[in-house]
Amino acid sequence: MKRIAIVLLLVIAVGIYAKRRFYGPKIQTEIAANDIKNGDIIFQTSLSSQSKAIQLATNSPYSHCGIIYKNGSDFYVFEAVQPVKMTPLQKWIVRGKSGKFVIKRLRDTSILTPETLVKMKNVGQHFSGKDYDLTFEWSDKKMYCSELIWKIYKRGAGIEVGKPEKLSDFNLENTAVQQKMKERYGDHIPKNETVISPKAIFDSDLLETVAEN
C-alpha cells in the first residue's frame, strides 16, 4: 500500500508540473489575445546557446523577438530562426524562458493600415525560408531576429523601429561574449558591421507595451 501511495503521489506531481509547464503560458496568451493586433512585436528571453551572450552584450534580458500576425482565429509569430518562418504564438511563448514575454505596438497605430500590413507581409515573404544569420551581417542573404523585424517595418511601413548600431558599440568585454564571438568570427571580428539588436527595437520611442506576463 505504501508503494502504491508513493506512485500515486508521483503521478499527481508530474501532472501538476505538466499543467503549469504547458497550460500556464497558454492561459496568459488567452488573456493577452484580446489586445493582440497584427504587426505587434513580441520579445522573450531565448534559451538558445547564444542567448546569454546577446543579453550581456546588449545589457538587456531580451534576446529574441518576432512580429505577430493573425491568420483566421489563430496568432503566429514571424521570426528568424532556422529557417525564417511562422511559428504558432503559443509554441513560441512556451519555447522562451519561463514562458515570459512582452508585446509592444506602435504608439501611432494609424500607420499599420490594411494596405501597409500587406506590404509588410510581402516584404517578409521575401525573407521566408532564409537561413538564420549566425554572424549578424547587414545583408539580405541570411536573417537574424531583430534584423528581420527592422527591415520589414522599414521596407513595408517606411519607419525605423530602433536605431542600428555598430558591433563595436556593444559590450564585448565579457568572457561569455568573447567566447561566442571567437566561435563565430575567429580572429577577425567585424566591429564596423551594422547591427540592430532586440534591445534597440524594445527601447524604440515609437513603441509602447500592450501586454506582458
Describe the structure concisely for a colleague.
With 213 residues, the chain is an alpha+beta fold. It has 7 helices and 8 strands; from the N terminus they run H-E-H-E-E-E-H-E-H-H-E-H-E-H-E. Strand 3 and strand 4 form a beta hairpin.
Instruction: From the alpha carbons, calculate the radius of gyration and give it in angstroms.
Output: 19 Å
Alpha carbon gap, first and last residue = 43 Å
The tally of helices reads 7
The CATH architecture category equals Alpha-Beta Complex
Poorly predicted runs are: 4-25
* Shape, per Cα inertia axes: globular
Q: Helix and strand succession?
A: HEHEEEHEHHEHEHE
Q: Say what the CATH topology is.
A: endopeptidase fold (from Nostoc punctiforme)
The CATH superfamily name is: endopeptidase domain like (from Nostoc punctiforme)
Strand content: 15-25%
Helix percentage range: 40-55%
Please state the structural category: alpha+beta
The count of strands amounts to 8
How many domains, as an integer? 1
Q: Give the overall pLDDT as a whole number.
A: 88
Name of the CATH class: Alpha Beta
Q: Major β-sheet, in short?
A: 6 strands, antiparallel
Descriptive notes:
The protein is α+β, with helices and mostly antiparallel strands. It is built from seven helices and eight strands, in the order αβαβββαβααβαβαβ. The strands form two sheets. The protein has a six-stranded antiparallel beta sheet with strand order 4-3-2-1-5-8, sandwiched between helices. The chain has a two-stranded antiparallel sheet with strand order 6-7. The longest helix has 32 residues, at 2-33.
